[in-house]
Specification:
This protein has 1305 residues and is mainly alpha-helical. The chain is 55% helix and 6% strand. The chain contains 48 helices and 18 strands. The strands form five sheets. The protein has a ten-stranded mixed β-sheet with strand order 8-3-4-9-7-6-5-12-13-14, sandwiched between helices. Helix 33 runs antiparallel to helix 34. The longest helix is centred in the C-terminal third of the chain and has 55 residues. The two termini are 61 Å apart. The N terminus and C terminus are likely disordered. Keywords: Ion channel, Ion transport, Membrane, Transmembrane, Transmembrane helix, Transport. It is found in: Membrane. InterPro entries: Ion_trans_dom (IPR005821), TRPM (IPR050927), TRPM-like (IPR057366), TRPM_SLOG (IPR041491). It is a multi-pass membrane protein.
């Protein structure tokens, strides 16, 4: 607080009266700046605005002196007010009184300013008053908050005002503790009397923070100018963290925007320019802004100023500003000199013409002004653009097409910028850097990936990062610590961070083969957590940069061989896009992941992996009750499953044969898995239900047999093997695919299958001994060749019978082998075998289960079961997973395998009890045997999965059993509650025994099925019951007569209503819902579960139990010989296709081309949808406008017609007054061009004096604008009047419409 002691006359130079001061000295020699004392005050805290409209939060404020320590002020703003450190400072200066922007200019300025502020994280500094441009800035902030719906704390509107000019400033002056809050009422403003020459102005309630500068003066404007200039310079020297390395930090950018303004604005601009702060002048806003623009246009691109330059500036200053008669000449000279000083730093001056602007142009102009000021430092420009997240500006002004060669030499800086863009999720910048030549192969080192995960995990504002930290802590926690409930260690990134990430991926996917970072080379040295690129060990060796971008996938067949043979030992990662894609998926960065997915290899597999990871993360988020994150992850997961399905559909439409190879191709970059395996392990039903997957399963299901072979024919051939020659076979699997492929040779298709399949009839003919081995080696070849302007020759495939005379034949033994090795044959044989086993099991349980020595049939049953159990062990060991833990986990995930486990455990218990129990207790062994047999019968339901109509019903039964389990839990509550009530009233003081527990449950349970037991409930004695307590106690409560209790029938009635009506209907509703859910997706669900059946019987030996033991012994012998090195055999797996590098690259190119076509078609469809929405919205808007016009015509009272006439007459008179000056001006122009008098003798009888032709042109433009505005208004009123008169008679009966009709319209 400042107390002035300089007094002269009645008033002090500070603007106050003598009696306002404590010291009554009177000396004209004293100076206000030196003769002012400073004292502490309590003007700080928060301002609560009352009566100014809706206000969500209070505004912090502080009252300071002009000579305050700026470092102290900065600490208050950052530490006390907790303001975010700005990445840009926008200081707005301009008119506080005369602020007359047109609505169009206001809209342009408002939207542009807020776009620039929100996109860059800027502070906006104004004068803070509720007048002029300052009030307009506050309204812009308010409109942004209202539009967004929530208070954005990153929007800072800082008002720096003169305390002595603030109306009702007494309410802001508190005690030493400050004001929390200071109440600032709008009602107190109207009662105040203005003192001095200048009126007091209230604070603008829409500003977020206030700094009130007090030098002791009252109603003296401009006190804050020097402080604002010093504060801007102070802030501009602060370093802004752009996310790059410490040495690449840049000064915090500051820009000054000039909107209209007076003489003080000229001084403010000069102070800013002197501090090397760029200035953006809004030409067309008026006064100071137009004056600066005028001088800038005259001096721009001119080496020598014209002779009349200063004369023009003086004349312009005289006309554009309001001057007092006294000292006007000196003030004009000072104003012109200030403009001259401003123009001396032309590079800091930027002019933006509002008349030629669009809504989105002004934010670019603000940022362009800053870049122009730093034109000599391109790296600083890029750092600023990156900090602002304005890739459009970086692409247009910084990294342009012409200077990209220069940027390529700055690769280290671009790598730093690339790392920052990745961490900060700035996708557009990443694409820009890739276009500039940044190579992911050289950029992504092990150290860089480690640092990338480290920086992302330490982001505490990211919910996905928080969940990954928790998951990583859980995985790293030992079982001992988990059991003892020890507090887990705080997460700290360790050198083996990448190994922990690999474990997370394994945990989410349930497959050890997906551990991509298990090698010791992924353990790095700990480094400081800093957002920067960390080069790897190969930097010194790798001098040549290899750019692996999306365009490189478009090569000829010759180039693909180079692509596959390219050495990758100079890079840490062979496929860096995949590593970054997985990183983006784990942190749920959608746009980033989608861009990297498009660039990576094997996009369908990548989409399925992403879908599986996101599903696992969604389940983890649900466990942590992160419901919003769970919904986002589920949505993201579904999107990638849709991507994979749609791209596969595009591949299938292009070439069905190659598409079928995609689903079984071994994916080396994803742990040697396949698309089938990924879809089956992660329950991706939509992908598995695609036509491509199902046709591939059909081909595998029937083996070498023709696809149209009927099941009944196969079944009869199993029983009568001599009918096998009636079945048609093929000697090449590719021929089978051609049977189902009608679009192999599409027009314009670049990848054609060039295979010559041979289809042979069944003929008994000698063949070579190695044929059976070689037929496995005739797996589908995808050696396609790219053709140019050639029509592929169509191939015809014929399936022949035994009677056909074809040279391409197969032997009878081969036909038998094909027949019995087909999965469908193995399935039928095993089910026939299983039925025989059930018959034997049933027969001995019913007829030959005795306590004595087991019978032969029982021994057969035991041996049969042992062979089936060995097959289950083989399935576990033969799983695709690497570790036994995940093999068991994968096997146990199938409900049928869990059912098998229960079945074999019951069988084992049956055999044990058969030998352990005596003859007296042998009944229990019989009971367990019978239950085991029942479970064996239920196990046969899996066979129904083959049938399309019955399979979904089995799935319904499974889901309904789950519903029934939940229902039983609810029903058990009612059962026990009423059962206890029955027992307590019918049989009081019962003897404790197991029979008592049965009695509690028995009656209420059977009542649910209609067995009401009314006689017993009513207390009637039953036959042979006793009432003697001694007798029934000796019998354990059996045979006791019920007591007569009137409450029991009432309880029974209530129980029957609750169970038979309420609970039973609840169960029916649950079953109906489950049925409807499965029925809607019955085919999709059936297709998904069908895969596990086909895969199981493809992998199962062709001999059925119990003879399957011989196959197991043979395989065991082969495995041992293989380990000893005596035999080396290579088997073919149609569920995992092995391809050469060249064929794999060609198939990858095929997949890539399908992806591009899919993305192109999706974009076209999206544009069509948007266009349709726009058209529909436009039509609705037109109809709404028509309805509103009809309402206006109907409800407009006729009595307003006279008022409209008076208004029109008044406006016409105003137009006439405006036209008169134009007429006089026209007369003067005629005389001027005819007589040519000197300009000094011209007199124009208007309020505006025009001494030059230029000034005359300005007058014409201003008057023309006013005439145009009034003319447009008059035209509107005239049209309204004509419509009212035209519809007066027909709308008399609709002069009063109800509000409901208006709302409906």
């Amino acid at each position: 607080m400042n107390n002035c002691i300089h007094i002269s006359g009645e008033d002090c130079q500070c603007g106050q009266k003598k009696e306002c001061h404590d010291n009554g000295q009177d000396s004209a020699s004293r100076d206000m700046k030196t003769d002012t004392l400073q004292s502490p005050c309590g003007s700080c805290g928060e301002i609560k605005f009352i009566g100014f409209g809706n206000r969500m939060e209070n505004s912090p404020f502080i009252r300071i002196c002009p000579k305050i320590d700026l470092e102290f002020l900065w600490t208050i703003m950052i530490k006390q007010w907790e303001l975010p450190v700005p990445k840009l400072l926008i200081s707005v200066t301009g008119g506080a009184k005369r602020y007359n922007l047109t609505p169009k200019h206001q809209l342009i300025f408002k939207r542009g300013l807020m776009n620039a502020a929100t996109s860059t994280g800027a502070w906006i500094i104004t004068g803070g008053m509720g007048a002029g441009v300052m009030k307009f800035i506050g309204e812009a902030v308010r409109d942004h908050i209202v539009t967004k719906g929530t208070l954005d704390k990153n929007i800072v509107a800082l008002g720096i005002a003169t305390f002595g000019c603030v109306a009702n400033r007494e309410s802001l002056d508190g005690d030493d503790r400050g004001l929390w809050p200071a109440t600032y009422r709008s009602a107190d403003l109207g009662n105040r009397k203005e003192t001095g020459d200048e009126p007091e102005v209230p604070l603008d309630h829409n500003h977020t923070h206030f700094i009130l500068v007090d030098d002791g003066s009252i109603n003296k404007y401009g006190v804050e100018i020097e402080l604002v200039a010093e504060l801007e310079k102070f802030i501009s020297n602060k370093k802004i963290n752009t996310g790059l390395a410490e040495k690449l930090r840049v000064d915090l950018p500051v820009v000054k925007i000039v909107v209209e303004g007076g003489v003080n604005t000229m001084k403010t601009v000069w102070k800013s320019v002197a501090a090397d702060i760029p200035v953006l002048v809004l030409q067309g806003s008026g006064r100071a802004a137009d004056f600066i623009s005028y001088g800038y246009q005259l001096s721009r691109d001119v080496s020598i100023l014209p002779k009349d330059f200063y004369a023009k500036l003086k004349k312009k200053a005289e006309n554009i500003f309001q001057w007092e008669e006294k000292d006007s000449k000196e003030q004009i000279e000072e104003c012109v000199q200030e403009l001259k000083n401003i123009l001396s730093k032309e590079r800091l001056i930027n002019v933006f013409n509002l008349n030629e602007a669009d809504t989105q142009d002004i934010d670019r102009a603000i940022l362009y002004a800053l870049l122009k000021a730093k034109k000599s430092n391109s790296e600083a420009q890029l750092a600023l653009a990156l900090a602002w997240n304005r890739s459009d500006i970086a692409r247009e002004k910084i990294i342009t097409t012409s200077n990209r060669k220069w940027w390529k030499e700055k690769e280290n800086f671009l790598y730093q910028a690339m790392f920052t863009a990745l961490v900060q999720d700035k996708v557009d910048f990443i694409q820009l850097f890739l276009d500039c030549g940044v190579s992911f192969s050289r950029f992504l080192t092990i150290h860089t990936l480690w640092n990338l995960y480290k920086c992302s995990l330490l982001d505490h504002s990211d919910s996905s990062a928080q969940m990954l930290r928790n998951l990583m802590t859980y995985i790293q926690q030992s079982w001992t610590a988990y059991i003892l409930c020890k507090q887990p260690e705080k997460f700290l990134p360790k050198p083996d961070l990448l190994k922990s990430v690999g474990k997370i991926i394994v945990h989410l996917l349930g497959d050890e083969s997906m551990n991509l970072y298990s090698d010791d080379k992924f353990t790095v040295d700990s480094r400081k957590s800093e957002q920067k690129w960390l080069p790897g060990n190969h930097e010194e060796e790798n001098k040549v940069e290899g750019n692996q971008q999306l365009s490189q996938f478009h090569h000829t067949s010759e180039d693909t061989s180079k692509l596959s043979n390219k050495k990758s030992d100079t890079h840490d990662f062979e496929h860096p896009e995949k590593e970054l894609f997985l990183w983006a998926i784990l942190f749920n960065r959608r746009e980033m992941a989608k861009m990297l997915w498009k660039m990576s290899r094997n996009q369908i597999a990548g989409a399925l992996v992403a879908c599986a990871l996101l599903k696992g993360l969604a389940d983890r988020a649900a466990d942590e009750e992160e419901l919003e994150l769970n919904a986002k992850l589920q949505e993201h997961s579904q999107k990638y499953e849709d991507f994979a399905t749609d791209v596969l559909g595009e591949c299938y439409s292009k070439n069905s044969q190659l598409a079928r190879q995609l689903v079984v191709r071994r994916l080396t970059i994803y742990g040697d898995t396949t698309l089938f395996t990924l879809a089956e392990a992660n329950d991706l039903m939509k992908f598995m239900g695609h036509t491509c997957c199902q046709t591939k399963l059909n081909l595998i299901w029937k083996g070498r047999m023709a696809q149209y072979t009927q099941t009944w024919l196969i079944l009869i051939s199993i029983i009568f093997p001599f009918l096998i020659p009636l079945i048609k076979f093929t000697c090449n699997q590719a021929s089978l695919e051609l049977q189902d492929n009608s679009d192999t040779h599409r027009k314009g298709e670049e990848l054609q299958l060039q295979q010559k399949e041979k289809v042979a009839k069944n003929q008994v003919r000698p063949k070579t001994d190695d044929f059976i081995v070689r037929h496995w080696e005739t797996e589908v070849s995808i050696r396609s060749k790219v053709f140019r302007n050639k029509q592929a020759q169509k191939q015809s495939d014929k399936l022949t019978t035994l009677t056909d005379s074809s040279t391409s034949t197969i032997g009878l033994f081969n036909a038998v082998y094909y027949f019995y090795s087909a999965p469908i044959t193995v399935f039928l044989i095993n089910n026939i075998s299983y039925l025989i086993f059930l018959a034997i099991f049933t027969y001995f349980v019913l007829t030959d289960l005795k306590p004595s020595k087991p019978s032969v049939l029982e021994y057969i049953t035991w041996g049969w079961t042992v062979t089936m159990l060995i097959e289950e062990f083989r399935q576990v060991v033969a799983g695709d997973q690497r570790s036994i833990k995940f093999k068991i986990r994968s096997w146990f995930s199938s409900i049928w395998n869990r059912f098998d486990l229960l079945m074999y455990m019951l069988f084992l218990v049956s055999v044990i009890t058969r030998y352990v129990l005596s003859e007296d207790l042998f009944t229990w062994a019989r009971i367990i045997y019978s239950i085991t047999l029942a479970v064996y019968y239920l196990r046969f339901m899996q066979a129904f999965f083959v049938e399309k109509n019955i399979g979904p019903k089995v799935i319904m039964i499974k889901n309904m059993i789950v519903d029934l389990m939940f229902f039983v839990l609810i029903f058990l509550i009612f059962l026990l509650s009423f059962g206890v009530a029955y027992q307590a009233n019918l049989f009081p003081n019962s003897e404790p025994s197991w029979y008592l527990l049965k009695s509690i449950v028995y009656m209420p349970y059977w009542q649910m099925y209609g067995e009401l037991s009314l006689d017993e409930m009513s207390g009637k004695p039953m036959d042979d019951c006793v009432t003697n307590e001694t007798l029934w106690r000796a019998a354990g409560g059996r045979g006791r007569c019920p007591a007569d209790n009137a409450l029991v029938p009432l309880l029974g009635a209530i129980y029957v209503v609750l169970t038979n009506i309420l609970l039973i209907n609840l169960l029916i509703a649950m079953f109906s819902y489950t049925f409807q859910q499965v029925q809607e997706h019955s085919e999709t669900v059936w297709r998904f579960y069908r895969f596990s059946l086909v895969h199981e019987y493809y992998d199962r030996p062709f001999l059925c139990p119990p003879f399957i033991i011989f196959i197991h012994l043979y395989r065991l012998f082969g495995y041992v010989c293989g380990k000893l090195g005596s035999v080396s055999s290579k088997s073919c797996n149609e569920f995992k296709l092995e391809l050469s590098d060249e064929d794999d690259d060609r198939l990858t190119l095929f997949e890539k081309s399908a992806l591009e076509e899919y993305l192109s078609s999706s974009q076209r469809l999206e544009l069509e949808t948007v266009d349709k929405k726009v058209t529909t919205t436009h039509e609705r808007l037109e109809r709404l406008i028509d309805d509103i016009d009809n309402i206006k015509e109907s409800v407009k009272p006729l009595k307003d017609l006279a008022k409209w006439k008076e208004k029109i007459t008044e406006d016409l008179n105003n137009i006439k007054e405006l036209v008169k000056p134009l007429e006089n001006l026209a007369k003067w122009m005629d005389s001027a061009f005819v007589v040519s008098p000197p300009l000094s003798s011209c007199k124009i009888t208007t309020d505006t004096t025009c001494d030059t032709r230029e000034e005359m042109q300005i007058c014409l433009e201003e008057l023309g604008n006013q005439v145009a505005q009034n003319g447009y208004h008059i035209n509107q009123m005239m049209q309204m009047l004509q419509e009212i008169l035209r519809n007066q008679e027909q709308n008399m009966h609709t002069s009063h419409l109800e509000i409901n009709d208006i709302t409906d319209a």
